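Before a computer can learn anything about folding, someone has to put a protein's shape into writing. The three-dimensional part falls to structure tokens, numbers that each stand for a local backbone shape. The protein below has been through that process, and both of its lines are reproduced in full.
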Amino acid sequence: MHNCAKTVLIIFTTLAFSPYGFAKYGDYKTIDESDNINDTTIHYYIKNLTSEELTLSRPSQKQTDRGNAISDFTVPINAVLNFPTHYPEPFRSITRDNPRILTETFAYASGKKECQFTATIKVTDLLKPAHWSGNGKSIGVEPADCTTDIFEVISTLPYSYSIQFSLE
């Protein structure tokens, strides 16, 4: 678990409702939760370990719904882009026969390297723990190291979590 006491964060706002931040390698606050306590937040950290900037090559539905330009998700060399994504009440009506799965998939590229990243929260029963996962796989012309680290989870409703995806 990362130490949140050493925070190096330069924040700028692309749109009033969607705060973004860049941080040099280090530790930072991991989840910027929604003001609505029923909304689930996946707070993404995209870490660039390549010698070129990272560009969003295949946006998720949520990234395109925000009205942001693809360039808003560009990650400079040796930097980390972080952005929270809020989902209104995705786990509202769960039964044993009706589990809920929240999944986001997108891809980043740097030169001929490209990684597809997936973040998932699965809730099968409100009396059992949720399952948080992340996956990164190389899909570019050149092989890439696509890693995933889950920083923090909120083990009760709304089951938010923070996850870092790295491309090297």
Remarks:
- The chain has one helix and ten strands.
- Residues 10-167 form a domain with the Mutm (Fpg) Protein; Chain: A, domain 2 fold (CATH 2.60.270).
- The radius of gyration is 16 Å.
- The chain has one domain: 10-167.
